[in-house]
Design goal:
Layout lengths: L1 H75 L11 H7 L1 H39 L7 H35 L19 H11 L5 H25 L5 H5 L21 H13 L5 H11 L5 H65 L1 H133 L8 H4 L4 H4 L19 H4 L3 H12 L5 H9 L13 H6 L2
Keywords: Coiled coil
Length: 593
Amino acid sequence: MSKLQALRDRQLKAFSDKLKSENDAIFEKYTKLKKFVKDQKKRTKKVSKKHEWTQRKSRLQQEAEDAENELLTNCRILADSKDLQFGEDFIEMLSTYERQEGEMKMLSHKVNGIIIAFLSAKNYIFSTLESMHESNEEPAPIEVFFKDLRSTLVSIRDEIQALGAVEEELDQFMRQHNPVQADGSSTKQSSRPADCESVLQGLLDKYVLAESHVKDEVRRDFARLEQMIQRTRREMRPGSGSKQSTGDTTTLPKLPHLKQSGGGSVTSSFMRARNEAAKKAQRKGRKALLKEISDILPHIKYSTLERQNEQFQQQQQQRIRSKETLELHMRELKQVAKVSEEKLLKSSNEAKKKATSAVACLKWEIHADAYTQQLEHCRKEKAIDNEIQAFMTLEDERKAQQEKERREEAARKERSHQKQLLAVYHDEVERKRLAEAEDVRMRKLQEDHERVLSLVETEKRVKFRQQLDSVKMEERKAKEELIKEGEIARHLRLERLAASVAPEVEADPARARAHTFASSSMFEEDGEGRAFHDVHGYFDEKLFQDQRFRITEALRAAGLHATDYGRSVLTDIKSNVQHRPDMRTTYDKMVHR
């Protein structure tokens, strides 16, 4: 009964271990599957967000291309405008395409930068969350993580707002370079970027716990950047460009010989001349168009137009350079704000850590007595638990020793019983072996006796068969002798018959090889006898005149004359040679008379 119980316990333990391992494998598989689903969701979210920004970028590029096409159209119909004057406005409208191309490139670079900044911030958030989820170490304080997350989200919000500002700037740029309105007023607006003081004040208000020397360092950085921005804005003001530096303010002369009408429109003859010049110079460029205008209007010199064109281009280059410098300062402002925010955040975290450590020391000093009493109580409880554990250990060891002695006694009894059974088994095996050996010996004696009897009978039959074979051999020899004698007599008879009918013809080889009457005509030089004597064969030139013969020879050369295909081809082809009497053999003449 104890063995059965032990076997049952072992089976239950093995089954429980197997079930536990299966549960662990299922749990591990579930964990991997859950992580895979999470990664797939995260990847899908990344791909969808990236696709959204890509669509937005393509939409902005399409709008820029539409604006470019619209400006080209405006340049083509520029000569038809009723309120146009031949001065600086005319040259400005001619150079609209070049200026717009440069600003479109700047806007494209700005959009690409914003998209890259957004994706980098998003990757930073996801990497931070994954590292906190997968690491087994003690994570940082949750307040620090949420402050970092908040600062990152604020930067992303600023980038999105900047992207909205870029779209508004693109709309303003398109409205700015549209043809002038009916009332002569143009829609030129500019959006003022963020101020350094507001950004600095926002950072200082956000991180109040930062140290004073860090705040002073941040103020110095913002002050230096503010001076650079102010200097750039002063350079962008009107009057500080290249036109004032050149000192040439020459304007185009008026046209007194042309008649003006109400509303500032010129006569129809001038309109036709200008339209023709614009159509001719539509694909020639600005210089060709200025040349055409100077040829049509002699009072407007080409040098004056070219000088004002150069002045206008210098002004535009100065404006573009100032705008690029200002945008560079704005990007630097964002970078300085980011670096300053990191410095303030680090300083605030250090101040918070110092305050936290001071509070912890103060709490320890206040509750030191209570902690000591609790520690003593815990030590006493641990000592009592150790004594109980030692007593339980001794009791378990005593029971284990008793169980071990009981199992050894049962094993000794089992071994003695098995030895007795083994001795009985060996005795039985030895008895069976001796009995089998005696049976084998008796069977061998019986087989030897039977073999001796069979040898006596066999010897009698062999002697009788030898006698029969000797009689048959003598009879066969007698028959062979009779056959030989008959053959000899037959040969003698044949010799006597041959001697009685011997030929009496003399040997004449020349006569045997001579031509006959029919064959002699085949070798005559005149060839007259060929058609009047029997022909016993064919010539090659006669045979190859037959189409069927030529095809037969070709099939035989290809090895196809014995196939079904060769036989079918020869059956379908008819001979194209009419048989003449001289082509027929003597046998044909005899058969087909």
